[in-house]
Structures are given as structure tokens and as C-alpha cells.
């Protein structure tokens, strides 16, 4: 070969795309578009259903009465915020589905952001991307903008739905903008944690913890008058401060917008300073081997679950401890408002004002975080398979049944630990404040949700066998999908059969009532069937990669 | 009669309409070092996934020492595997991964493993996320060589190793053969295959093109012959097997020879030959002979 200067053939020219950034933006869009469509459709759909049927529901005295009772239920007030403006379709919709949609959008924004930034970087795919003409902060920004655009699209969809339903424009715009800003805020939080931590799991965990603390701060602000200022420190609190359709305050949203902008700038600044595949906090360079729990597939599954379990337990434990601590004051509040208590009794929710009733309602929603936990664990198992971490184990004398079976058993056991922990935290909180709740009642209440959790696990295992890419969606369907369905069905007085599809419709309010063994048995049989079908398919299919 | 270490019988795999592997029939004899060659996309990794039971064949079957490859709990007791692209649990250190592999595998020789760690110059105290491609490969190689499994299946195991480490790899393969272990080596490094393999299989577009010892393969392929002569040049134009005759200087001729050398030698005997040299083809030339026309397309 000649070492002489190569001259380019006449007429040839190196093609150079004028806008390399656009390609990166499209890459990010491609990675989130499916989830984005689901989030926007859910947010718009739930809002539309509730607002469109408001007049019809209020015209029916029985339905209106049970909704009033629902509004008077202290547990529901803790979850959804103080009901204000229930006399308008807009105000009612904001109260009923506003928080649920905000949590949904916030969680999705976090998961999407850390997945397409830190997750892709972890997998080594950003090495190539960052060798392009774009610097790291630009690449980060071009991944963050599509996620924020989804939040903006959600905001636009909610506002449009509320306007089309004929609610007051100021309230519609304020509520839509607030929800969208909240989604952007959590995308910015996740972008920052993805720069600080050198791995995806702690980045996601920390951002979700910020979301959880935000929710807790709003709940504390709602429950304890002296702590009302906490609203200003929580994105959820800021949203409730705007009071759409009633107060229509804009200043809380400005605070949220400024906070989002600051976090974004901070994330970009950190991205400029740090090394690729490293974070602001450095990964340890080396350590002595810890061979604890590495003796087999099952012990290794236990080892892998310990850290996530500790994180989820901390979050769930804190939430239920707070519920325990506030139980006495909110139930007292209800007792002091005979009108509300009367309405509750009218609707057949006699004991809901008692601590046991309060706890029973809140224990039911425990199925969601724990169902989310089992789904996340099975999704992580599929991820280990698809990025080939599982290959070395799968080429050992270990059957597929042992591989998946260990994961299922350990995940189910971890779920049992979570519900037990939630019961103990609630009991501790109630007891500390001088209330009455037997520890066995608390345990009965939280263990009552295990069949729904196992239904989620079964659905996730089914997906692992038949459609691994859909594990997250199928796994979340019974718990998160079921809850959204119930909330929507209850708010629009939908026909009973549609409500009955949700497993939550079959959950007895334990410890207020006895557990329904028949319903639990049906769920357990269904969960077992799904699990067996999933394992059967997993044993026969090709490993991913 | 003993079972072959690996056996493929009409092994076929379709991915949708794509035929990744088409009725492969192959026996690997216990104790041999078997090379598995083919260009990218020829179906080498698919074959290995089928032999390991990681993927299920569309038709045919695979066996490991007479055990159905799908029965991984039994079949994998006889083998250790190094994948082409090693992915490790990022939070575990090298030592922890080696420990996990030893505890879940078919049994490991721990003193030999420590020796291998030394020889491959690996720092096992680092978390796997900090390892380079080569270091990840070293982990899998050390774990595999340290087992006493009678069969080692290695899928492009040296693509990330430097020349020094590649030498260690060849030494480890020879030690494995000396202990009676069978080695199934899929590789692009033809020099490496030439140095360590007893037999090779050549795969082309999902089909087996040839299985042979390397010396037999050479016999089947073009040797390059150079002759020096005085007087008139030999007439080789009609001799079977002789091609591309070209002058190589004054009173020198170069040509390629395929198959039996007899007729060519007789033709040479007719003139006064003063010198004769023959060069056997390298594996690379053989390989290019098989695929050259394809890559040139």
C-alpha cells in the first residue's frame, strides 16, 4: 500500500448531516414512544370519562350520595387531597383523578428518563453516541426534551378534554399545566440523579424517593394544619395550592417551573463535568470479595433482591408509618363532622370513620406499590436475559425451571416481606399516637392484598414466557390497571360488570370486615395458572439476545 | 463405542423466513480440539446456542456426550462455555463472579483457577462494570478453563485479547487437551485455529461446507509451486490441476497446483529443473478460497 497522500476522487464529497442533534432526538423519541402514547391516552381518557359523566352521576341521588361519602372518607382524603370544588365538573375531576394522573405521569417520566439516559449509558450504547459531534450535555438535553414533551402533551390533552367538556377555561388550563409541569419536574429530577449516580438502579430509586417524599409532604400538609407550609416544598403540594376551578392561583406553578428549570440546568452542568460511564459519585475501584449468597441460583436471586427490597421497604414503610401516625387525627375529624359521617353511613360505609376502616381502605392500595415491585423484579430478570448477563448461568447445569422458579419464589417472598412491613409500620404509627389497632388486624389487612400482588406476579411470569417485551405492561395490569379501572368506574358510576373486572372490586375491607376467601381463592388460582403457563413457555422458548 | 463429545443430527434453525442453520450434521470426537470457522452470519453462534440448549432447534437434534442438549441439567454437567460477547453482573466483582460460576458449575479446580488468574493477569477485585471487553472475556475463560468439564465450548474467545494473552490462551487450550478435555473453538483468528486445532469445520450460509483435518484441507487446496530451470520452459498449460502460470523472473515459473502432483511432476521432468519449492496454503488462503468469491461480490 502506498503511503503517499490520497487525493479524493474528483466529485466525491463527505456527506455531513447539517443537524446531528435531530438524529439523537429521534433516537430518544423511538425509545419512549410506546409508553408515551399509553400515558397520554390514560391521562386524557380518565379525565374525559370522569368529567363527561359528572352531570349524569350527580343527577342520580344514590350515586351522588356514595360519592359524597367517598369524599368524606378520611383515607380517600389522605390519598386524593382535600376535596374542594366538588360542585363543579372540573373541580370534581381534579380531585378525583388529578393526583392519580400526576403520580402516573411523574413515575413514568422518572422511569423513562433514567432508562434512556443512564440505562443506555450503562449498557455501553452511549460510548458511540458521545463520540459523535454532540457534547454530553447536548445529548442529555436531547433525551430530556422528548420526555418533557410527553408531559407537555399530557398537559395539552387534559386541558383540551376539560375545555371540550365545557368547564371553566382558567381551571382547565391551570390543572393541565400543573400536571404537565409536575411531569417535567420529575424528568429533570431523574436527569439529575442519572448524572449523580454511576448506575441506573440508584438513579431511579433516588428519583422515585423524591416523588414519594413529595407525596408524603403533601399528605402531612393536608393532615396537620401546622405543617401546611410543607405544600410549598412538594410538587404535589404546589399542585393542590393552585386550587383549579376554585382559587385558580398561578404563583405555585411559577415556583414549580423555576424549580424544574434549575434542576435541568444543574443536570446539564453535572453532565459536562463527569466522565462517561461514571457519575458525580464514583463507583468503587475495587474491594474484597463478598461471597455471601453466591452458592447457587436461589441464593443469588436472594442477593440480587436484597438491595431493591430495602429501598422499596423504606418507601412503603415510611408511607404506612405516616398513615398510622395521622389515622387518629383524621378519624377524629370525621367524628367531629356528623354530617360527613352520616353520609358515609347512608352509603353503607359504616365503619369507614374508624381506624380499622381507615386502615382497610389504605391497605387496599398497598397492592399497587407491591404489585409494582414484583413487576419491576420480573422486568429486571428479562433485562438480565436480553443483555446476556444470564447466559453464563444458563450454560451451567441449571434448568430454566430452576432459573425462573428461584426468581419467582424470591420475588413472592420479598412481596410478603413488604406487606408484613407495611402492617408493622401502620401498627407502630397508630400505637405511637395512642390509637387502637391490633397488630394481628394490621397483618390480616395487608396480607389480604397478597392475592392481587400474586396476580400481578403471575401476569408478569406469563409475559416472561410468552412475550418478554411486554412483561412490564402485563405485570402492572392487575394492580395498577385494576386500580385505575376501579377509580374511573366508581367516579362515572359505570355498570357493575366493568368495575368487577378490577381485582380491587373483589377485595374485602380487612380488617374492617373478614377476608373473602372465595375471592382470594379465585385470584390465587388465576395467578397459579398464569405462572404455570408462563414457566411452560419459558422452558421451551429461545433465550433472548 | 463412546459417544461423541458433540453431535448434531440434521440440526436446523429458522428465524421466521430466515434459515440460520440448515441440516447440520457434525460429530466432535472426545479429546480433539475442533475448530469451527465461518464468516459473520454463517450460523456459528446459532449452532452453539442450539448445542447448549439456549435455543431450540426447528428440526433435528443436538447431543452432548449422548445426552439431548435440551436436558441442560445433565448435558451442562459435561461442559463449560465462553460466549462471544461476555456480559457480567455489573455489581459483582470478578472474584465474586468466578465464585458464583464455580459454585453453580460442573466443579472447579480452584488452585488452577488461581494460577489462571495470575497468567491472564486479571485483577479480580474490581466490580464487573469497570472491566473492558478483554477483561470480561478473561473472566469467562478463567471460569471455563478452571472447570474439569470434559468439553469446553468457546465462541470467539480471544477477539478482545492482546497478543500476550492470546499466547496464554493457546497454552491453556493445549493444557486442556493434555488433560483429555475436548475443545470446540469457534474463531475468526485463523492463525490461532491453525495453531491449536486438530480438525476444522467450515460453515457457509448456514450449511456445512467442509469438515477435515487441517493437513487434508491443505491437500485439497492450491499449493504455490515455483520452479527454476535451464533451457526451454516446461509446458504446463494442459496439465490438470495447474493454474495461473506466471513468470517469476528469468528462468523461473510460478503456478498453483490443486490435487495430485504426479502429472505436473512428469511435465517438469521433461525439462531441466534446477530448483523446486512448494508452499502450502495457509488456513487464511483456504478460508478465502471458500469465501473469496462471496466477499468479492
From TrEMBL, chain A:
Top-level lineage group: Bacteria
Annotated keywords: Membrane, Transmembrane, Transmembrane helix
Transmembrane annotation, as ranges: 36-57, 93-111, 143-166, 172-194, 206-230, 250-271, 309-331, 351-384, 404-429, 449-467, 474-495, 515-538
The protein, known as: ABC-2 type transport system permease protein
Organism encoding this protein: Actinoplanes campanulatus
Lineage, uppermost ranks: Bacteria, Bacillati, Actinomycetota, Actinomycetes, Micromonosporales
UniProtKB/TrEMBL annotation, chain B:
UniProt entry keywords in alphabetical sequence: Antibiotic resistance, ATP-binding, Nucleotide-binding, Transport
Residue ranges occupied by any ABC transporter domain in the UniProt entry: 6-230
Entry membrane topology: Peripheral membrane protein
Name of this chain's protein: ABC-2 type transport system ATP-binding protein
SMART domains found in the cross-reference section: AAA
SUPFAM superfamilies recorded: P-loop containing nucleoside triphosphate hydrolases
GO MF annotations in UniProt: ATP binding; ATP hydrolysis activity
